[in-house]
Specification:
Blueprint (H helix, E strand, L loop, with lengths): L7 E4 L6 H8 L3 E6 L2 H12 L8 E5 L3 E6 L1
Length: about 70
C-alpha cells in the first residue's frame, strides 16, 4: 500500500477482502465496499481470522455493505 501509516484506503470493489487484510497488517484504515453476498462472506471469514479488537471493523448495510477497518 502506498498510503502512510494510519492513512485511509478505499476499496470500492472489495472482492474477497485482500486489500482489507493488508490494511490490518500494515496499520491502515480501510473502507471496503462490496455488494455480492458470496464475496461478503469471504471478507468476513478473511477478516475474522485476525484477532481484532471489538469494533475494529463495522459492517453497514445499504444496498451494499461497507466494511470500515482500523489497523
Amino acid at each position: 500500500l502506498v498510503t502512510p501509516k494510519k492513512g485511509l484506503v478505499l476499496d470500492t470493489f472489495a472482492g474477497t477482502g485482500t486489500t482489507g487484510e493488508a490494511c490490518i497488517l500494515e496499520d491502515r484504515v480501510g473502507y471496503l465496499i462490496e455488494k455480492e453476498k458470496s464475496y461478503i462472506i469471504d471478507i468476513e471469514k478473511r477478516l475474522g481470522k485476525h484477532n481484532l479488537k471489538p469494533k475494529a471493523f463495522n459492517i453497514i448495510t445499504f444496498p451494499k455493505k461497507i466494511f470500515k477497518l482500523k489497523g
